């Protein structure tokens, strides 16, 4: 699937989001020129409330776009400097931060991989890769929309949200991704299950293998169910090849077996992270 029209969404309350969109505005070309040249283009949508809240948007604005990129702050109790990429949605029984319990947004494994690789490249070019942890996150928080989308974030405290070098790296990453995104230079699209929130096992695979990961169901959203797996599959824009399992991150032996039993029952192919690249 080739995306041509992008919408960059940020909140006016979000210092990182405002800084990213301000930096990104210098790269925006005329939509008429882009259309005439059959080039991808992007617009901005700045909202008054926090972008995780579904009430922040007029969702009709999303309809004419192929892909939505949420530019945002990342917040964590650790305060670790981080640049993050993740799909939005809620696999848990609660939706404390927007969206709907048990529902996730459409996500492109190919786009997620492409923008993650680009983020590493741009951060390294600007010598930010040593200062900031570059990481995927498991699928979490709202909003819930029906367009393919991704969050790209600067964290984890106000110091980083105001760091113009970090916000510029995110802006340039978005710009380069939009300009050079290809339909499928990768071999296999996967849904990932298991492990902690910051996906240590999946980060390396997303960056260094031919596997492209769409949604990630973290261990904290267990017990796993058929419904969660089917929701992740249904909301992956590409045809998936298999489910990727962080075997050590599936809990105890009983929980691991439950995951495998669900996959086998539904004729869903799976691989362990240790099997990738072998």
Keywords, separated by commas or semicolons:
278 residues, alpha/beta, Aminopeptidase, Rossmann fold, 6-stranded mixed β-sheet, 4-stranded parallel β-sheet, 8 helices
Note the beta-strand portion: 15-25%
DSSP summary: helix tally: 8
The secondary-structure element order is EHHEEEHEEHHEHEHEHE
Number of domains: 2
Structural class: alpha/beta
Low-confidence stretches: none
CATH class of the largest domain: Alpha Beta
Mean pLDDT across all amino acids: 94
Strand order of the largest sheet: 2-1-3-6-4-5
Amount of helix: 25-40%
What radius of gyration results from the CA coordinates? 18 Å
Task: Characterise this structure.
The strands form 2 sheets. The protein has a 6-stranded mixed sheet. The protein has a 4-stranded parallel sheet with strand order 8-7-9-10, with helices on both faces. The chain has 8 helices and 10 strands. The chain has 2 domains: 5-180, 3-Layer(aba) Sandwich (Aminopeptidase); 188-275, AF0625-like (Rossmann fold), CATH 3.40.50. The longest helix has 17 residues, at 109-125. Helix 1 crosses helix 5 (164-180). It has 278 residues and is an alpha/beta fold.
């Amino acid at each position: 699937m080739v995306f041509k029209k992008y919408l960059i969404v940020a909140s006016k309350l979000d210092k990182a989001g405002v800084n990213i969109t301000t930096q990104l505005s210098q790269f925006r070309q005329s939509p008429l020129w882009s259309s005439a040249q059959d080039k991808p283009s992007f617009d901005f949508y700045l909202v008054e409330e926090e972008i995780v809240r579904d009430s922040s948007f007029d969702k009709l604005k999303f309809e004419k776009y192929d892909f939505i990129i949420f530019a945002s702050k990342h917040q964590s109790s650790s305060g670790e400097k981080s640049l993050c990429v993740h799909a939005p949605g809620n696999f848990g029984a609660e939706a404390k931060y927007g969206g709907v319990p048990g529902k996730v947004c459409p996500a492109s494994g190919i786009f997620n991989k492409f923008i993650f690789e680009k983020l590493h490249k741009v951060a390294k070019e600007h010598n930010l890769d040593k200062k900031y942890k570059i990481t995927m996150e498991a699928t979490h928080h709202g909003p819930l929309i029906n367009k393919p989308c991704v969050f790209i974030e600067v964290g984890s405290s106000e110091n980083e949200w105001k760091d113009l070098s970090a916000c510029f790296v995110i802006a340039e990453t978005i710009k380069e991704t939009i300009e050079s995104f290809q339909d499928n230079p990768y071999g296999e699209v996967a849904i990932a299950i298991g492990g902690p929130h910051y996906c240590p096992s999946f980060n390396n695979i997303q960056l260094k293998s031919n596997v492209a990961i769409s949604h990630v169901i973290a261990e904290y959203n267990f017990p796993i169910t058929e419904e969660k797996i089917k929701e992740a599959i249904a909301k992956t824009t590409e045809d998936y090849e298999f489910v990727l399992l962080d075997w050590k991150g599936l809990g105890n032996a009983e929980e691991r077996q439950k995951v495998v039993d669900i996959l086998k029952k539904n004729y869903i192919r799976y691989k362990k992270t240790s099997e990738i690249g072998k």
